[in-house]
Amino acid sequence: MSNPACPSGHPRIARRTAIQAGRIGLLGLGMNHLTGLHALAGQPGSDTPPAARPQFKACIYIFLSGGLGQHDSFDMKPSAPAEIRGEFRPISTATPGTQICEHLPGLALRSNLWSLCRSLGHSTNDHSAGHHMMLTGRSDLPPGFNPSAPRPQDWPSIAAVAGSVTAARNNLPLAAVLPEQLVHYSGRIIPGQYAGVMGHRRNPWFIEASPFHATSYGAFPGYKFDHQDRGNPDRRLFEAPSLSLSHGLTHPHLSRRVSLLSNLEQQCAKLEFAAAAERFDQYRQGAISLLTDPKVRGALDVTRAEDSVQDRYGRNSFGWSLLMARRLVEAGVNLVQVNLGNDETWDTHGNAFPHLRDSLFPPTDKALSALFDDLAESGLLEHTLIVMAGEFGRTPKITLLPSHYKYPGRDHWGPVQSVFLAGGGVQGGRVVGATDDIGAYPITDPQRPENLAATIYNALNIPATMSWQDEVGRPHHVYSGEPIPGLV
């Protein structure tokens, strides 16, 4: 018997089927992505021989939300007074004359693969403004900028721009962000991550593999910590991305998507009409297969990778995230932003040295070293730019806030930070720029967020004349600066 709400010219769609199909859209994917995702399903380990892989240009943008202290990592000042130099000591790298923190031994051994820019800065010490500047590559905040929430008037993120103007290698999304969106412990969403004036349809693909936890930071489960020891238990699991809603998807754009699906059971006729327009019938079985085929889940479920691979990267959220980034780049995603830790994980106002030494540097050093080894061995490092930065650096002088922390740390510092770069044509063993004796300000080759964004765009082979369009069709230049000189 025909359903009066669903004309006989179209097959009936069960509620479960409709919801499953709708979840693909909630993930940020359209039906046109199915073919690419099935291709990804066929290479869960991405072990295709290098000679068989097509040439491409890609970028992995590792973002250290909270801000890594330059004095304690890549621009150490061992001759400065104790209140400046801190507790850590420098070690020599494989590059003569270049030293970094003693707690990054894996990176020190591989310095022939990476370079540093020690002179990038901007004008703010505010977390939200700094996020917006470093994630969009724009030093100028948009008119009416709201540090408490993203707005449609924000500048588009580097990921959103790259996802809009780079060439597709298959049907996969061109830009992705993992393993979670950046959410403040209060629950507010950090601005700068989205497409802004480009329109929400240009948002990058947000892969939610790590559930939100308000007060726990670091590479869980083995390296988690709380900045202020508030005693809130953290029982998170790092899981393959779910095709359902997770915490943090409260951005108005996503809320509108949810509202469109809220009454699916009563809207069969409307769904069938949309199905005809979108050739839904042609892809329906593919959509269901995407949701149920274990190969698809296995492609992104890095917690089920070979034991030897997980051991090299680290069985924690940092290791799994960089492993997932490598697989996505190999599979066809042009830019992958990896948030190493949720919002403000690297915000070391207090207890800085034990947190860096015990909880942050070990998993970062191990996972990044494994990523270098894999990309270099496969020949893909030449085609993949790796960038690591935060929203700002940290103050030269160590401070103590005894009401919150037992041990000292450093506060926010916008004027300078050290940016780590490798691959994608960047020559290893180079250092661009220098800071003064206390690591407070650049004294040579000052750089801005615009220069970092241009470095990424250039590595992706985006022409200097390329533009992107906002939601009403007005063109905007992709480049707002020149690539950082001296790296290539």
Could you walk me through the main structural features you see in this protein, from its secondary elements to its overall organization?
It comes from Planctomyces bekefii. Pfam families: DUF1501. The protein has 488 residues and is α/β, with parallel strands linked by helices. It folds into two domains: 1-41 and 249-300, no CATH class; 52-240 and 309-477, 3-Layer(aba) Sandwich (Alkaline Phosphatase, subunit A), CATH 3.40.720.10. Helix content is 30%, strand content 14%. The protein has helices at 15-27, 34-41, 82-85, 105-109, 127-136, 158-165, 252-261, 268-277, 280-292, 294-300, 307-313, 317-331, 352-378, 449-459; strands at residues 58-64, 90-92, 99-101, 114-120, 175-178, 205-206, 217-219, 223-225, 335-339, 384-390, 393-394, 412-413, 417-422, 431-432, 434-435, 442-444, 467-469, 475-477. Helix 2 crosses helix 10 (294-300).
Q: Main attributes?
A:
14 helices; 488 residues; Alkaline Phosphatase, subunit A; two-stranded antiparallel ribbon; alpha/beta; 8-stranded mixed sheet; 2 domains; globular
SSE blueprint and pairings:
Layout: H1 15-27, H2 34-41, E1 58-64, H3 82-85, E2 90-92, E3 99-101, H4 105-109, E4 114-120, H5 127-136, H6 158-165, E5 175-178, E6 205-206, E7 217-219, E8 223-225, H7 252-261, H8 268-277, H9 280-292, H10 294-300, H11 307-313, H12 317-331, E9 335-339, H13 352-378, E10 384-390, E11 393-394, E12 412-413, E13 417-422, E14 431-432, E15 434-435, E16 442-444, H14 449-459, E17 467-469, E18 475-477
Parallel strand pairs: 1-9, 1-10, 4-14, 5-6, 5-9
Antiparallel strand pairs: 2-3, 4-13, 7-8, 10-13, 11-12, 15-16, 17-18
Helix pairs in contact: 1-7, 1-9, 2-9, 2-10, 12-13
